[in-house]
Amino acid sequence: MAIQYRLLIVDDDEPFRAELAGQLALTEGFAVDQAGSCAEARDLMRDPYDGIVVDVGLPDGDGRDLCRELRQTGIKAPIIMLTGHDGDADQIEGLDSGANDYITKPVRLGVLMARLRAQLRQFELSDDASFEIGPYSFRPAAKMLTQGSKRIHLTEKETAILKYLYRAGDRAVKRETLLGEVWGYNAGVTTHTLETHVYRLRQKIEPVAGTVTILVTEPDGYRLVRTPKG
């Protein structure tokens, strides 16, 4: 199962946007939303994204201004700017607006996808990476969950389990898959090892002791409920 990222593509070229979204969903397993304007992007930004691709030329504004706006609101996810201009001044302005990378059109999809993957990997390892899980903010680099002043420290394996389940979205992950991703298919590791780690992790993160609302058991694996009901 591929680890899933949530991406937003903001571009008024609908055929290009659709092709890029389709390739990212098909080859990478990414969940991709699309916007054709700044206004549509703002509406979609109510939910957090792991990465954003923004065209400079949008029908209702400049993509660089949108990038600055997103940074001012506290969004730290990687942003890649697209533009039809290849001058140094244009690239400098794009990067100064808060973009992580700057690619000129016509865009080669393979290159864009590779540079996007690189930015996502780099961000995930940074101290800025934070994901919402239930009532907590999850910071993988710090191996920590926070809720206000509350701090829950995680082990390396607990962090890896949460991170992989988070990337799976609403899908359940089989025990064997999770074992392989977290422990590397070590012949000496059994599903009992995973179950023990999940048990200890639940003791740390479930808001009400004895209940299971965040890290739930499925028939053949586990699933993370990012926003539990109630």
Automatic annotation (TrEMBL):
SMART domains: REC, Trans_reg_C. One of its GO terms (biological process) is regulation of DNA-templated transcription. The modification 4-aspartylphosphate is found at residue 55. PROSITE patterns: OMPR_PHOB, RESPONSE_REGULATORY. The keyword DNA-binding applies. GO terms for cellular component: cytosol; protein-DNA complex. Residues 128-226 form the OmpR/PhoB-type domain. InterPro entries: CheY-like_superfamily, OmpR/PhoB-type_DNA-bd, Sig_transdc_resp-reg_receiver, WalR-like, WH-like_DNA-bd_sf. It holds the Pfam family Trans_reg_C. One of its GO terms (molecular function) is transcription cis-regulatory region binding. Residues 6-120 form the Response regulatory domain. Residues 128-226 bind DNA. This is Two component transcriptional regulator, winged helix family. It comes from Arboricoccus pini.
